[in-house]
Write a structure and sequence with these properties.
0% strand; 518 residues; globular; single chain; mainly alpha
Length: 518
């Protein structure tokens, strides 16, 4: 029950962060639209954000949490404090050096991450100016990730889950009241990213200090725990974050496509991240310390039971979210973004991208839940091999299909094929992770899987049919005013959700069935 409770706590705060993030994106789309300015800003923000997901939230968290969990079980509190202080000092210095390099090398980074901007001097120069301010975000947010890892290891999930809310509030404030004061508003948006990162660190740092496990920061690469975390991080960058590399490749290729492609992919990806953040990432955050503790205590039965429970919840919760995003892509885009500078063309193009991304949501979610099964056992090599192979699938599809579609076949929405390719790579990644866990005996399916699969399939089919019948087309939604869109979309979501869970109940699924799997 503590897993249910902690997942609920993290999910609730993450829901608020996603709502505030959606409000932020609504402000961006209404005030600035989807043109050259936002293309440049999204690339400048994506670079440190990509590094954050790759290292801070991905490799670092999945390397740090298992090690500190082991220290909690096997070492003294003094050793735990020494580990935390050594990690803070060592990685703090490394992050500071990385930040300086990133700021100085901003033009090179823009060329690497958005080479298509070079032909458009306006977007290129603006993106470079913005990156000078956005890149230091990686320094702040990586230290925030360290604080979050410490707190999560001690069962404190609320404060870390709240910090993204603070980030979104700061960025909204800068978009509305600070950016308009600048001759180039994009620079004001970029400064807002810097301020948001600093605000999160200043909020979470004192919480760790009050917990009593914050050792004095110092350079300590020779410390055994620090070296183990560093050695696990390097391969873990690919193992835990292939989806982020795939999304980055989308932006690189999209920079060569028609103006607005980067923005359309960004806006649609944000909607896919909503269920990912509210549920999947919350679940992955909660199970990693538990899996690490079970491994340290040499309890393979409880390890397998917790992993099986997490996979069942993904199937139960994420599949209807994917179906809903696919069927309601147009209404969602119209309701959330289509106003102000975001016109009907932007809405149609973003809808295509959202439909494509929704097909990969289950794969994205499975990767997030299955990867901790490796990292909790401090196995980083296997996810690396799987991640590199999956990334190759994505690149191959982009080269063989997406680029010819854009340049030779005059496909009207090549950016949607980029999103589809990313989802395909996620499915391959999750399937190979699952097979590896099964082969080694780490994951063992519990009873009732066939029944659960049939229940979920029937419930999703019923929900999809209802939503398709009621949704209507995008042109109709764009003709309605904002409040009409809101209450109609809310009605669709409530009706679809109610039918889904009603069918599950009629077919005999009960909450206690999921509790028994533990």
């Amino acid at each position: 029950m503590s897993l249910f409770r902690n997942t609920t706590v993290v999910g609730a705060w993450t829901l608020l962060s996603r709502i505030s993030g959606m409000a932020r994106d609504m402000v961006y789309s209404q005030v600035f639209g989807a043109g050259a300015l936002m293309d440049a800003f999204f690339v400048a923000f994506k670079i440190p954000n990509f590094l954050r997901r790759l290292s801070a939230e991905g490799a670092f968290s999945q390397a740090f949490v298992p090690v500190i969990s082991e220290y909690k079980v096997k070492q003294t509190p003094e050793e735990v404090r020494a580990l935390v202080g050594g990690v803070a000092g060592t990685f703090g210095v490394a992050l500071f050096v990385l930040t300086l390099i990133g700021v100085v090398a901003a033009p090179i980074l823009i060329l690497v991450f958005a080479p298509g901007f070079r032909a458009d001097g306006t977007r290129f120069d603006l993106a470079v100016q913005m990156l000078h301010w956005t890149f230091p975000y990686i320094f702040f947010i990586s230290l925030v990730s360290l604080c979050s890892g410490v707190l999560n290891s001690y069962g404190r999930f609320g404060a870390p889950a709240f910090t993204p809310v603070l980030m979104n509030v700061v960025m909204i404030a800068f978009a509305l009241w600070v950016a308009p004061l600048f001759a180039q508003p994009g620079v004001g948006l970029a400064i807002g990213v810097f301020a948001a990162g600093a605000a999160q660190l200043f909020f979470l740092g004192p919480v760790v200090v009050r917990l009593g496990v914050a050792g004095r920061p110092r350079w300590a690469w020779s410390h055994d725990g620090v070296r183990r975390i560093g050695n696990l991080m390097l391969p873990g960058i690919f193992g835990s974050s292939v989806a982020q590399v795939s999304l980055l490749l989308d932006s690189v290729i999209a920079s060569f496509l028609m103006t607005g492609s980067v923005s359309w992919l960004y806006y649609s990806d944000r909607l896919v991240e909503f269920p990912m953040g509210v549920f999947t990432i919350a679940l992955a955050t909660v199970i990693l310390p538990g899996l690490s503790a079970h491994h340290a205590q040499q309890s393979p039965e409880r390890f397998a039971a917790m992993l099986d429970w997490a996979v069942r919840l993904v199937v139960l919760i994420v599949t209807p979210a994917a179906v809903g995003l696919l069927v309601l892509a147009g209404p969602l885009i119209a309701t959330i973004y289509a106003r102000g500078a975001f016109d009907a063309h932007d809405a149609a193009m973003s809808t295509y991208a959202l439909m494509a991304y929704s097909l990969g949501l289950i794969g994205f979610s499975m990767v997030k839940v299955l990867a901790p099964g490796y990292f909790a056992r401090q196995d980083a090599r296997t996810p690396v091999r799987i991640g590199v192979f999956s990334l190759g699938i994505n690149i191959g599809f982009n080269v063989a299909v997406v680029l010819p579609a854009a340049k030779l076949w005059n496909f009207p929405a090549p950016h949607a094929l980029l999103a589809l390719s990313t989802g395909l790579a996620a499915f391959v990644n999750s399937a190979l992770l699952f097979r590896g866990l099964r082969r080694t005996g780490v994951y063992r399916a519990g009873k009732g899987w066939k029944r659960l699969a049939l229940q979920v399939l029937a419930a999703n089919a019923a929900m999809a049919g209802l939503l398709w019948w009621l949704a209507g087309d995008l042109t109709q939604w764009l003709a309605w005013d904002s409040w009409t869109r809101v209450y109609r979309l809310a009605g669709l979501v409530l009706a679809g959700g109610a039918l889904y869970f009603a069918v599950l109940a009629l077919l005999g699924l009960r909450v206690r069935d999921l509790r028994r799997t533990l």
